[in-house]
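Q: What would this chain look like folded?
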Amino acid sequence: MPVALMVIQIVISIALILVVILQARKSSKASGIFGGGTTADYGGKKGKEAFLMKLTTVIAVLFMLSSLLLSLIK
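A: My prediction, written as structure tokens:
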């Protein structure tokens, strides 16, 4: 069971990395790299951007839940 959860954790981790990399950043300034974006960056997402944002949220929640599960089992 723990080995299967570790494999699932690795797959979720890779998926999360890929989804985050796929997202386009609108801010071209250096402050955007460190999370210095404005609240205007989050409004009015359409199409692919909205889907990627929701997918990132879902995968991040799955990552947190699998991490919790792994820590409770070990």
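The first helix runs from residue 2 to 22.
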